[in-house]
Amino acid sequence: MSILHDGYFTQGLDADPELAAAIRGELARQQDGIELIASENIVSKLVLEAQGSVMTNKTVEGFAYARYYGGAQFADAVEALAIARAKALFGCRFVNVQAHSGSNANNGVFLGLLKPGDTILSMKTAAGGHISHGHPATLTGRDYAIVHYGVSRETERVDLDEVRALARAHRPRMIVAGGSAYAWTLDFAGFRAVADEVGAYLMVDMAHFAGLVAAGLYPHPFPHAHVVTTTTNKSLRGARGAMALWNDEALSDGINYGIFPGVQGSVMLHIVAAKAACFGEALKPEFKAYNAAALENAQALAETLAGRGMRLVAGGTNTSLMLVDLVNQGVTGDIAATALEAAGIAVNKNLIPFDTCPPEAPSGLRLSSSAGTTRGFGPAEFRQVGDWIVRAIAARDDAAALAAIHDDVRALCRRFPIYDAA
Fold first, then answer.
1. What's the pLDDT tens digit per position in 144-168?
2. Last residue within a domain, chosen from 263, 282, 301
3. Would the pTM count as exceeding 0.90?
4. Structural contact between residues 312 and 322, judged by C-beta atoms closer than 8 angstroms
5. Domain check: are 150 and 292 in the same one?
6. Would you say the C-alpha torsion 102, 108, 113, 116 has a positive or negative sign?
7. Which residues contact 414 (CB under 8 A, 6 or more apart)?
8. In b/e form, how buried is each residue of 296-314, taking b as 16+ CB within 10 angstroms?
9. Closest to 89 measured CA to CA, from 266, 259, 291
10. Is 418 helix (H, G, I), strand (E, B) or coil?
């Protein structure tokens, strides 16, 4: 008797009906629903195939051309290709493409450049910061002394005077710029001036605007940042993973060994292959056109929501994401998100600056134009989406009204199909 079941090397998803049903259900949800979640996008068939390739079978540890495992010639070629493309995309000297996630990239940088107990100055979560920058529930929050800056009550934007005052008072070893729910461009030169004044590293986490940076549509973190981290699955439209970028060779050992073996083990080569694929796509002229469209679409959505009486945090956006304040709608973000999901629109609840509600039932929604732009929506479609959002939230207790909106959402999505309906 064979030790392998029949079809081990030939059968696909049909061999596992339960799993197939869940995956095909997710495909149908994506095909017939609108994604507005800022941490999501829609990857190309090329990225899907690279991520599902035989690279998943290969284990390597260490760095390209210096592995602890044999049989690595093609693994080295894939990782070297990803690194070369990332360098070209962002104009930097050094890149580590191994990080499994944005949090791992950030933690690897912290581990490699800081000592336990060092002070990190970063944006507070309620102001738009990311939990990996020092939330008490994370390793960063446990292992380092965290000081948070916020946003101005008047403008709801970063106040560099506050950042400077906190830096002078607490003398951080690292300052972090960037977050997950901040809708405006950041002044990297201003952050670097503060960092230099107190002798701190400046780390920029550009996870939510990396695509805009690559397309020349957002201020570039270099030469101001000592190190930059980013995920690859948001505006870069790639595999779920992350990377770190820097220019000073003196930082290389700290960052590289902070990631491996510091916070993770062997490389997920199938993910690195998919990163190489998306970097190659991002180097093409079409990628700049995509990001320009995402900015235009975000403006259309923001203007529609504001015109229908919804307040946008910080007065709107000049990026591809925005934060909606629901206080004047008499509803919390969790309830609004549930209603919108019933209407075929995926969003995420989110804290707003100075929120008096808990994270589980916050006062806001975070929205992004990234995924809708990828599937081909333009300003007209995003204005329609804005109208549906307002209507769905108002009809949150009316199942029939939400179902009717969902029918319209489905019809729109089928005008802009994604993938084959296999």
1. 999 999 999 999 999 999 999 999 9
2. 282
3. yes
4. yes
5. no
6. positive
7. 31, 32
8. bbbbbbbbbbbeeebbbbb
9. 291
10. coil
